[in-house]
């Protein structure tokens, strides 16, 4: 639901590596099925997801949402998580016809 798609692409970053360059963020706390609480941050203007982190005062790391990063082309996937809930049809889309733009 968060992305409106079958995928959510994130990259981990230590706190010292992450700097919000501009804009304002809003946050909400999401409680997982396990009971763990995480802060989810998004652009206050357009709603774009920016990051998630532990619900503590000084989180040790952030899970940055790749869609809002300028460097996203330099961040190819290294692993997949939450595979238990993955959609079967989304595992290999390389044979589906592609359109360069619309």
Describe this structure in words.
The chain is mostly beta strands. Helix content is 0%, strand content 29%. It has strands at residues 10-14, 25-31, 37-43, 49-54, 61-65. Strands 1-5-4-3-2 form a 5-stranded antiparallel β-sheet, with no helix packed on it. The radius of gyration is 15 Å and the shape is globular. The two termini are 24 Å apart.
According to DSSP, the number of beta strands is 5
Helix content percent band: under 10%
Helices, by number, come to: 0
Report the principal-axis shape.
globular
Largest sheet descriptor? 5 strands, antiparallel
Mean pLDDT score: 89
Uncertain segments are none
Fraction in beta strands: 25-35%
- What is the distance, rounded to the nearest whole angstrom, between the alpha carbons of the first and last residues? 24 Å
Radius of gyration: 15 Å
Provide the spatial order of strands within the biggest beta sheet. Answer: 1-5-4-3-2
Global structural class? mainly beta
> Could you state the order of secondary-structure elements as H and E?
EEEEE
């Amino acid at each position: 639901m968060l992305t409106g798609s079958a995928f959510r692409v994130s990259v981990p970053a230590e706190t010292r590596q992450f700097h919000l360059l501009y804009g304002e963020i809003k946050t909400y706390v999401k409680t997982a099925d396990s009971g763990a609480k995480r802060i989810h941050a998004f652009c206050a203007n357009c709603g774009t997801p920016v990051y998630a982190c532990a619900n503590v005062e000084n989180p040790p790391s952030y899970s940055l949402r790749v869609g809002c990063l300028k460097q996203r082309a330099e961040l190819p996937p290294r692993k997949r998580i939450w595979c238990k809930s993955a959609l079967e049809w989304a595992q290999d889309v390389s044979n589906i016809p592609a359109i360069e733009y619309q």
